[in-house]
Structures are given as structure tokens and as C-alpha cells.
Design goal:
- 2 copies of one chain form a homodimer.
- Chain A folds into 2 domains: 150 residues, Medium-chain alcohol dehydrogenases, catalytic domain (Quinone Oxidoreductase, Chain A, domain 1); 142 residues, NAD(P)-binding Rossmann-like Domain (Rossmann fold).
- Chain A contains 12 helices and 17 strands.
- In chain A, helix 4 packs across helix 5 and helix 7 runs parallel beside helix 8.
- Strand 14 of chain A pairs antiparallel with strand 14 of chain B, so a sheet runs across the interface.
Chain lengths: 328, 328
């Protein structure tokens, strides 16, 4: 079996990782062998390779945090699972690989007829989008929300989730060429970022108040969003695509009572009840399986192409997610 | 009578303002004439002159927001006030003047035997310090709080208020030469700011958690404080002494759940009940009158010296407050 493995971390993420052939381990009691069908490269995976993420697995490690597999062999004593069943990979298993061995207990079965390339992105980005629209500001139908990096994975789901809830979205991207990729997603207003963003937002919304802003960029872009929210509004940061700290002017913070908070899905998982997690995942699985929500895929790579795949994911100039789809 | 008046706003605050002699207006029914005893120049006053503050009075205007006066003449129909009574000037009256005319109704009498130079600073800085230690984090005796600009007016009151409540304070200043001025104030730890602030704080506190940080500086200094607070901690900004936006790293915001909020005393006044305001001022007056809290005074100027006084207040290199104390 093939695994994308790294022994060290460093500033150029594709330099640390390489595809290695390892012997397939014998299955212990209760274990199953999974053929991995698809696994995404998320920004958090890139930050894990560079060492900038909030949790770092011990080295050496297999890259990839989420993904979808198919049961291909049952170990002794496994019941309730059949060969051929599509399952969600346990989080953090090392999903950039041709195969993985997992304990059968606790594996979440997924619809066999749904697209595994869409399902493989379900645990990180869609819950992030759904929860950021729930946890900070009480939004009602017709309310406005603004986000930047709208052409990102989370950004795309957020447009769709906002629409599903009857919210109006203002979707900001960093370059003109990215506008096209968000324009087809059903958002209400799509704009390119800039220091005058608040003026263009005001024109587009007719001055309607915006109480929630979602920031994945940092730097001056955070303050551009802070300029757009109404008095008492909240800016939620969940990413650092600019590599810079969030900037927010004291004029926004002090005189307009804008606050800056953070969202991290790992912390939500740590604190949320099993019921809340089950409900959220159930909703997301259903929406993906029925095609109600989906993410744009920029390109697919085999595990053997891991260096090119990571380099593509780390580049800001793509439209859509980079997937690892092992060749059979 | 002499007034410090400005007709325009601009980047160099002392250029806009000048001392002018105006005729003393005749008292209308219910009015009193006040001899102004003392009035401070606060950072918010400097920002009002440069046009950067959150509320700007219409032009032309007399400078000065708070101060203390003594009743020197009663208009017709005034009862319950005597000539010689020390009173708090109504907020925003234009306190940088030799005299002011005020409606007798609603004037707050102050102890005649207390130092007017201490009383004149009571409405802005002490409530700011008291409220920032109350409104954001529930602090118990023995808990730590960290602040920068600890040698400022608010900073000095905050050290004293923290001590009064049994809180431990870490007091950060921007230059070595300012350390001496905070060392006599009774704070627990006094440090000069820097990128390694969190390491020195950890050493000084033995790693005790700090849940509240108070920032009047902005720029990288905000993130230095964010580095010092525990997971879930709050950084409260109330000033922009660096002239830069607050910087906070997504690592602090996202991975450590640090949030950035703002405090503005004007908003508190707008929203707080009359009872809450009365209670707060009553406490502050008592503490100042009995010498329990006080502020360092850097220098005193006559109204005729307003340009020098404002220039001194706008300079970062002073230790203590600049006061206008009209000559008699």
C-alpha cells in the first residue's frame, strides 16, 4: 500500500512529504482494511505540514485528516459491516494513502451510491460553514452576512448554507479572476476585496445592517470586513490565508463595538455533545448525498503525486479543492 | 474670560487651538457662573482635536471634556447652591477655560476640601479603569490581569483598582524610562513591552492563567497581550496610542479562542441606568476625596498656555496627566 508520509515539518509543505510503499499490516481482531476512495487537502493540512497548525501529530506521520474509504477486508470478529460498504475515515487516520486499517467499531457508514469525492470533504468544511453561521450571531431569514475567501471550500459551503437558511450573503474574493467561480454559487453580492469594500457593500445592500463577518484571510482584509459590519457586529476569523495577523482598527473596536472572535472546528468537536455532532453530520451527509450542497474540485491526484498535489493546494491561485483519489 | 477654542481639526492638535478672550455672558434664569479650578487633557481630547475621536462636537468649539469648577455667581431663581461650592463640570461643557456658565440644575456638588486637581480627572479615567475590570471577565480575588500603557491615567487607576479588589496586576510600559513611574503604584509585576512579553509574564506569574488583558496601544502590542492571556481569554482595547490597528494572530484567535473586544465609556454612559452611574461616581468621588486613588500630574498650564499644554499631552514621553489650571 502507498502512503504520503512526512518525517519533518518546514516552510515549503511539499518538501517534507513523499509517497512511500509500506507493507500492508495483518488485520487484528476487530479491524478492517479500507480502500481509500478520496481525501481532500485542506488549508489546515498544509499548516500541519508547515508546523503552523494548532494541533500537530507526532512524527513520522501520514498526511491527510479526513476522507472516505470502502471496506475491502474484514478482520476476525467484525460484525455489522460488509465488504464494499462506504465509510467515513476516522478523523486524523492519515487519509492520503491507498489503504488504511481501522477499528470497525465506530466507523460511520455512508451511502454507497453517493459521490465519494463530495463525501470525502464532509467533516471539515461543511460543519465549519454551518457552525459559523449559528454560533456567534442570531441570524434570521433575510439577514445579511459577509465573508471573504468566498471561493474557498468553506466559502462555497457557506454561500449554499446561507441560501438554504434564507440569509443573504456578500461574498468577497481577493482577485478579479476568482469572481467567476463564486458567481455561479447562488450568493447575493460578489465583490473583490479592497480598502473601499465597505462603500461598495453599502451600495449593494442599500445600507442594510450586516451583523456577522467571516474572515479566513487576516491582515488588512480583517479590517475591511470590520468596516462593513454594523455597530456591535462580530468578525469571526477561522483562517490565515494572508499569513498576517488580523488587523482591526480601534475605531471599529472601540467606537463601533465591533468584536473579533475565532472559530476552530476542533474545539467545537471537543465540547459539543455526541447528539449535536450526530445531528450535524446526519444533516451534512444527507445534503451531500442528495446533491443539495457540493464543493468545486480543482484537480485530483494519485497518492504517488503527493508533492504536486500539496504544492497545488498550497497555491492561492486555484478555484476549488485539491483531492487525493488513489488509482486502482 | 479666557477660553481655549478651535475652529478646525487637523493632524497637529496644538495648531488648531488657541486661547481667546471672550466677554462673560449675562446669566440667564437658573444659570450659575463657574470659576474653573482644574481640567485635564485626556487622549480622547487630543483625538477630538485631530478629528479621530468617535464623537466630534460641532465647530467652533471650546476644548476640554471634564473638569471641576467653583460657583462664583448665582443667576436668578437658583436655589440649593451657594457661591463657593465646588461642582463637577457638565461633561463636554468646554472645560479648558477660566470660567463657564452652566445650568444650576443637575450640577453635581463635590467636597470643597478635596484637591480639585484630583477631582477634575474623575469622570473619564477612573470609571474606565473600574468598568474594564468589571464588564468583560468575572475576576475573583487573586486573579491576574495584564495591561499596557500602565503609566497612563487609566493605567494608574487600574493598578489601584486592581489592588483594591485583591487582583494581581501585570503592568506593561513601552519604554524603560516609564518603569519607575509605575513601580511606585502598587502593581505586582512591571515589565517593558516586547515580542517575548509572554515568556517574561509566564516567569513572573509562575504560569498562573491571565484571563483579561487591557490594551490602549494597538499594533503589535495588542498581540503581545493576546500571547499572554490563557485559552479563552479576552483582550479589551480602549485606545490607539500607537496609531496602528490592533494586530492579533489567528493562532491566538482561532487555536486559543482569544477574543478582542472594545470599551468606550461614552457607550457605557449611554446604556447604563442613572442608578449605576450614580453608584459608580459616588464610589469614585469618595475614593478620590479620601486619597485612596489618585493620578500622577505631569504638569499644569494656564488656559493662555493651551498650545504648549496640548503639545505636551500629545507627546508620548510624559509621566502623568497634563492639567489646565486657570490662573487667578
Amino acid at each position: 500500500m502507498l502512503q504520503a508520509k512526512y518525517q519533518k515539518r518546514g516552510p515549503v509543505p511539499q518538501e517534507s512529504i513523499e509517497a512511500v510503499t509500506v507493507e500492508q499490516p495483518a488485520l487484528k481482531e476487530g479491524e478492517v482494511l479500507l480502500e481509500i476512495l478520496a481525501a481532500p487537502i485542506n488549508p489546515s493540512d498544509v499548516l500541519t505540514l508547515t508546523g503552523e497548525y494548532g494541533i500537530l501529530p507526532p512524527l513520522p506521520a501520514v498526511g491527510g485528516n479526513e476522507g472516505v474509504g470502502r471496506v475491502s477486508e474484514l478482520g476476525a470478529g467484525v460484525s455489522g459491516l460488509e465488504v464494499g460498504q462506504t465509510v467515513l475515515l476516522p478523523i486524523g487516520i492519515g487519509s492520503w494513502a491507498s489503504h488504511a486499517v481501522a477499528n470497525a467499531k465506530g466507523l460511520v457508514p455512508l451511502p454507497n451510491d453517493a459521490d465519494p469525492r463530495q463525501l470525502c470533504m464532509m467533516t471539515v468544511n461543511p460543519p465549519t460553514a454551518v457552525l459559523m453561521l449559528q454560533q456567534f450571531v442570531n441570524l434570521n431569514e433575510g439577514d445579511w452576512v459577509i465573508q471573504n475567501a468566498a471561493n474557498s471550500g468553506v466559502g462555497g459551503y457557506l454561500i449554499q448554507e446561507a441560501k438554504r437558511r434564507g440569509l443573504k450573503s456578500i461574498n468577497v474574493v481577493r482577485r478579479e479572476s476568482a469572481l467567476a467561480s463564486v458567481e455561479g454559487q447562488g450568493g447575493d453580492v460578489n465583490l473583490v476585496d479592497g480598502p473601499d469594500l465597505h462603500k461598495r457593500v453599502r451600495e449593494a445592500t442599500g445600507g442594510a445592517p450586516v451583523h456577522l463577518a467571516i474572515d479566513a484571510v487576516g491582515g488588512e482584509a480583517t479590517n475591511h470586513l470590520a468596516n462593513c459590519v454594523a455597530e456591535g457586529g462580530v468578525v469571526v476569523n477561522y483562517g490565515m490565508m494572508s499569513g498576517e495577523p488580523c488587523h482591526v482598527s480601534p475605531a471599529n473596536i472601540v467606537f463601533r463595538d465591533v468584536s473579533l472572535k475565532g472559530f476552530w472546528l476542533s474545539r467545537w468537536f471537543k465540547n459539543a455533545s455526541k447528539e449535536a455532532q450526530g445531528k450535524l453530520f446526519g444533516d451534512v451527509i444527507k445534503q451531500i448525498a442528495t446533491g443539495q450542497i457540493k464543493s468545486t474540485i480543482a484537480a485530483e491526484y494519485d497518492v504517488s503525486q503527493i508533492k504536486e498535489a500539496v504544492a497545488a493546494a498550497a497555491s492561492g491561485e486555484r478555484n476549488g479543492k485539491i483531492l487525493i483519489v488513489p488509482k486502482r
